[in-house]
Amino acid sequence: MGSTSTDVVPTVAQKTRLIRRSREGCGNCRLRKVKCNEAKPQCQPCLSYGVVCNYDKDVMDLKLPKELQHLWLAQELSPRVPLKDLISTEAALETHSVPLELDASSLGLLSQLYHQMKLTSVFPVADIFQLAQEYPFLMHAALALSAAHDRYLSRAMRSSQGRTMNEMAHGFQCTTLLNRTLCHEISPAHRDPIWATASFLSILSFLALDECDPSKAWPFKPSESDDMNWLRLGDTKWKLFQLTQPTRPDSIFYSMSDTYQKMRAYKSTGTIRSISPELQVLCRLDECAQPETSPYFEAAEIITRLSKWRDFEIPFTEAMAFIIYTSPSFKSLLLMKDAAALVLLALWYSKASRTIWWVDLRAATELEAICMYLRQYHADDLTIMSCLRYCSGKERALELLC
């Protein structure tokens, strides 16, 4: 009995030492519930995680480094300068110059996003947010998305719906850190946080819209190489899907296997009868039309399928088919601002935006911009004008099928 007691006591004492937290550690370590080594001015956990130590309680929350303070001041003094140009300078966004502050405001936004996703998303939200405490690139992605979500919720009270400096800075930091990780061999433990980050980044790319005036937004604005980037990200994300294998049994995303299968299982019927007569006329499709011969075919077929659903009841997988399965040639037509392709995109916005908040935020500007553009440059095309009546106003929710 004596020897047993002796064996047990050190074990208990050792466990106690492992979980004992520092009483003098920085605030970030206490928030993250990790042991602080109390090094000053920067403790090792904060250096490794990329956060700014806050031993001093008087340190202002969300304090920006000097580089970003100059940018913020420039933004306030020169609101006409596009935010995109302001934060693209190399001096402003050095990888290590963007702090990650886990202050009360940031935690509030994260909590807001967490509860929204728990209610409306099939993602394993609790597991993702748990991983974010361990992987900086995922935490930056979550912070950027939480800022975008707050922008969506507060848009009625704001004159501008463009990205905030905080949202862009976290997005940039996330991309930089993720690219560094992908330059090395991916360990099994990194697969889930990488896939979660890729999923968040795909949403953030959709929300990368800084011009809120429809008359100045795409398609009115001059063409740029990154136009429609959000629509082309599907191919890159699919490569990461194959790399990370989120449907494997030990993945936190395993519960979404059926969802992923449905998203990849779309198959065109290959028959003109699957497309509404009105869209057949718009896209100049005859009885011989096939997905292989017409760039409009799959997009028109997907829009016709979506029109059968009531607003707010469209399954996520059905809405995403437009992004995943429209052909490269159709996406090229969009870049060229082809009228029929623009109509199909507008019709997709009008349906998908009723289901997905981040589609709704982009559609608030771009759907109106497309409709204005088509009315300005194609007002004499009666077919186009007829289709546009389904994209706005009281008839927005009407079915396109005859």
UniProtKB/TrEMBL annotation:
Against InterPro entries, the record matches this protein to: Sterol_Uptake_Regulator, Zn2-C6_fun-type_DNA-bd_sf, Zn2Cys6_DnaBD
**Domain of life of the source:** Eukaryota
Record keyword Aminoacyl-tRNA synthetase present: no
Q: Which residues form the Zn(2)-C6 fungal-type domain?
A: 25-55
- A Pfam family name for this chain? Zn_clus
Query: Which SMART domains does the record cross-reference, listed alphabetically?
Result: GAL4
GO molecular function terms listed in the Swiss-Prot or TrEMBL record:
DNA-binding transcription activator activity, RNA polymerase II-specific; zinc ion binding
Give UniProt keywords alphabetically: Nucleus
Statement: the UniProt record of this protein carries the keyword Nucleus = yes
| Name assigned to this protein | Zn(2)-C6 fungal-type domain-containing protein
